[in-house]
Amino acid sequence: MEADAYTITADGERAVASSPVGSLDDRIDTPSDVAGRIDSFDLRPDRADAVRAAFAFLKFWGDATRGEVVDGVYSEHPAGYESGREWWAKLVRDRLADLPSVDSPSAEGSPWRDTETPDGDDEDGRTAPDDPTPPETSARFALDGLDLDGDERSAVRAAFDHLLAAGTASESTFQREVSSDYPAGYESESEWWTDCVRPAFERLPGVEESNGAEWEYRQSAAGPASTGPGAESSGDSGHGE
Known about the structure:
It is a single chain. The chain is an alpha+beta fold. Among the domains are: 27-117, Orthogonal Bundle (Arc Repressor Mutant, subunit A); 145-220, Arc Repressor Mutant, subunit A. It is 39% helix and 10% strand. The chain has helices at 24-27, 32-40, 45-61, 66-73, 84-97, 139-144, 150-166, 171-177, 189-201; strands at 6-8, 14-16, 63-64, 102-103, 112-114, 168-170, 207-210, 214-217. The strands form 3 sheets. Strands 3-5-4 form a 3-stranded antiparallel beta sheet. Strands 6-8-7 form a 3-stranded antiparallel beta sheet. The chain has a two-stranded antiparallel ribbon with strand order 1-2. A hairpin with a 5-residue loop joins strand 1 (6-8) and strand 2 (14-16). The radius of gyration is 18 Å and the shape is globular. It starts with 5 loop residues before the first strand and ends in a 24-residue tail after the last strand.
């Protein structure tokens, strides 16, 4: 039976679906070597689907930061994890790094890359005519629509990645922790924040300003969370936080 003829029940079991589910991972073919590697992880069906969806998200965009993957995939594939940070650290991160064609970043906030995404005319390497419709509620999609140059975009992506990892962060924290590695041509940290990162944050889904100079990221699991036996089994855990 075709893979897209299945769905995941509330307890994490695989069942026959009444109609195909049009999620991002269903719309992009998973290469056979990647599919085989995911099968070798011996995960429960819902968790294997989460890793597959994370790979599909990366393959679609060509590159994506940790924060963009979590933002774009976790809510539809929580696989029993109560937060995107836990989902990334315990399930997705190490397994995504172990997949063929995936290059993990060497620097904090830098993108993960799919080395087999074909080159195209677009800035991110995708070829428009054959692309599926991207998830329009994701931060990655919103970032593509912002009027930023390459260095500014990298700075905003790194700042978003930092926010997702921390959950909340202050204006001064972003300036101290991110701007030095991603200055984007700005002469001061305050200018970097006021003219580049803050305006971008105001347009990203899930990013909210609270308590003055504090910013937070909010995301809830909208997909079928697993609550059955083994939801936190060590066999499906990654290699640490």
